[in-house]
Amino acid sequence: MALGQHRKILQIVGYQNSGKTTLMEQLISSATKQGLRVATIKHHGHGGAPQVDKMKDSARHEAAGATITAVEGAGTLRLSIQQQCWELADIVAIYDAFPIDCLLIEGYKKAHYPKVVLLRTEADEVLLQQLSNIVCVIYWHKQLAVDYPIFSINETAQYIDFLMTEMRKD
């Protein structure tokens, strides 16, 4: 089964400090309360590798040169795979092996998956011309005249309900 054919993929995009991680947390919480199995991918777009706790054995294995490391405990598996560069499609393909209902992706603005766009300032509106496959827009500053469903950042219940419906669509 190819991911995306039977499992919903939804991207959360916007510039730094627009509320992407908060929205991800809200969606993950809502989806899991409704019995959905959720997986996530986050783009670390701030330059450099994400920080790893160097005291953990798996981090030590990675530092020693292992390209794939994993650690399991209490039913949790932490996996790290090193290679020169990752395409989002390659990362998404890894998730094919797991029994999930939906995949939430934070970032990767240029990818082709359905997107929720967060706009914190008027200057952020340029994203609406640059991005494809927009499902809805959540704004901080003013209501917009766009062809997508739009929500104020303060309309949490409304946009969570809308997105949960979207995540359950085939």
The major pleated sheet works out as: 6 strands, parallel
The percent range for helix content is 25-40%
Compute the number of strand runs: 8
- Distance between the first and last residues' Cα: 14 Å
Enumerate the strands of the largest sheet in spatial order, edge to edge or round the barrel: 2-5-1-6-7-8
CATH class: Alpha Beta
Radius of gyration: 17 Å
Structural class: alpha/beta
Instruction: Return the domain count.
Output: 1
The amount of beta strand, in percent, is 25-35%
CATH topology: Rossmann fold
> What does the overall shape look like?
globular
- CATH-defined superfamily: P-loop containing nucleotide triphosphate hydrolases
- The H-and-E topology, N to C, reads as EHEHEEHEEHEEH
